């Protein structure tokens, strides 16, 4: 028995109309007359039922509705005047209530001000000797004073307004304190000297001075180098070739890095350099408005005098107060901005042809 295979695609397949010539009777059989047959079938159906629709009169096809229309039950919209009246009536109660609330708020505020301005009342006499019976535990402390209430907003810094100087800066200091202050000043000077040496090595040391500039004798010695002692140098090079030693030790196959290890090492190195640059950039940004440190006020051992009359003052009081305000964040630290000098421009006038 043959197996029947059902098609899963249930959609109808539309075939294109074939273009046939109508000058032959053989091609007439292939003409599509589906629309004509449907029209004739519709005509026959109308004749069997009620007759042709095209031959009927209008009163047979249409019905005239002569029933009375019912009244519209939808309420009419309010006009603008009516809406304003209704809104005024609705807001009258709200306005009166707002006036009452305003009066009540003013009365409460006046009562609070009156309560705040009145003097506190004490149940006991402060001048009485027997006032310890009704005293609070707070007044039984050693100071017998009320502590100052701290502000609600915390202070920006905890540094004191006047910082005490180093004990070694006294006019008659102890030996250890004076040596400690001298050691701090020595560290500051060493730091400055290192910075100056670094700048010298980066700039001046790379260029010869006036005394060390090349002369004719040095030029002749440099140009004649290796011409007269060629044989001696040749013998030295031959003996030196035998004593050559490899600088880098040989690398075994097990010690070689794979491509993955090399890539990870390069990524780690790039990340370290990126973090270092970020740190240097942040340090440069913060150095712009950093508070400069004041120089140490000290006296050398031969400048110490045991009397205030012969003491030479150090520092400046106004500068000290100004730096203290900057440290306590009362005023912002500033940097002196120099006036930029505009470069002069030269141009030629077309009228006189004179260089100005």
From TrEMBL:
Pfam annotation, one family: Nop53
Keywords on record: Nucleus, Ribosome biogenesis
TM regions (residue ranges): none
Family: Belongs to the NOP53 family.
InterPro entries membership: Nop53/GLTSCR2 (IPR011687)
Gene Ontology cellular component terms for the protein in this record: nucleolus; nucleoplasm
One of the protein's GO biological processes: ribosome biogenesis
Region Disordered: start-end pairs: 1-27, 149-169, 233-272, 337-356
Name of this chain's protein: Ribosome biogenesis protein NOP53
Biased composition (Basic residues): 15-27, 254-263
Biased composition (Polar residues): 1-12
Subcellular localization: Nucleus, Nucleolus; Nucleus, Nucleoplasm
């Amino acid at each position: 028995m043959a197996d029947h295979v059902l098609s899963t695609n249930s959609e109808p397949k539309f075939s294109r109309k074939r273009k046939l010539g109508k000058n032959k009777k053989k091609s007439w059989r292939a003409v599509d007359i589906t629309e004509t047959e449907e029209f004739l079938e519709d005509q026959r159906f109308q004749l069997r039922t009620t007759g042709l629709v095209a031959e009927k009169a209008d009163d047979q096809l249409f019905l005239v509705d002569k029933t009375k229309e019912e009244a519209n039950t939808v309420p009419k919209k309010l006009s603008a005047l009516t809406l304003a009246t209704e809104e005024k009536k609705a807001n009258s109660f709200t306005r009166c209530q707002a006036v009452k609330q305003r009066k009540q708020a003013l009365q409460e505020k006046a009562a609070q001000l009156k309560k705040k301005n009145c003097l506190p009342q004490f149940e006991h006499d402060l001048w009485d000797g027997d006032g310890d019976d009704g005293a609070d535990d707070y007044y039984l402390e050693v100071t017998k004073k009320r502590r100052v209430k701290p502000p609600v907003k915390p202070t920006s810094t905890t540094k004191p307004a006047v910082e005490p100087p180093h004990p070694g800066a006294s006019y008659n200091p102890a030996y250890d304190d004076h040596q400690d202050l001298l050691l701090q000043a020595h560290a500051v000077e060493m730091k400055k000297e290192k910075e100056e040496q670094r700048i010298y090595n980066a700039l001046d040391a790379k260029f010869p001075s006036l005394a060390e500039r090349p002369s004719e004798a040095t030029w002749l010695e440099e140009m004649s180098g290796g011409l007269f002692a060629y044989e001696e140098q040749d013998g030295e090079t031959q003996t030196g070739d035998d004593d050559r030693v490899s600088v880098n030790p040989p690398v075994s196959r097990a010690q070689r890095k794979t491509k993955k290890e090399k890539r990870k090492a390069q990524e780690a190195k790039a990340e370290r350099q990126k973090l270092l640059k970020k740190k240097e950039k942040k340090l440069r940004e913060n150095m712009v408005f950093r508070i400069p440190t004041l120089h140490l006020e000290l006296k050398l051992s031969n400048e110490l005098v045991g009397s205030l009359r012969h003491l030479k003052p150090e520092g400046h009081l106004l500068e000290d107060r100004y730096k203290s305000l900057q440290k306590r964040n009362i005023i912002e630290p500033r940097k002196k901005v120099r006036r930029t000098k505009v470069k002069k421009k030269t141009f030629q006038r077309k009228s006189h042809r004179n260089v100005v």
